[in-house]
Amino acid sequence: LDSNSIEEKVLDLAGGTGDMALLLHKIVSPSGSVFVCDINQNMLKKGRERLLDQGIISGTEYVQADGEKLSFRKNSFDAITVSFGIRNFTNKQKALESMLEVLDYGGRLVILEFSRPTNPAISKAYASFSSFWPKLGKFITGDESSYKYLVESIQMHPDQETMSDMILRAGFKNIECLSLLGGIVAIHSALKTR
Question: Please, are residues 20 and 83 in contact by the beta-carbon 8 Å criterion?
Answer without folding.
Answer: yes
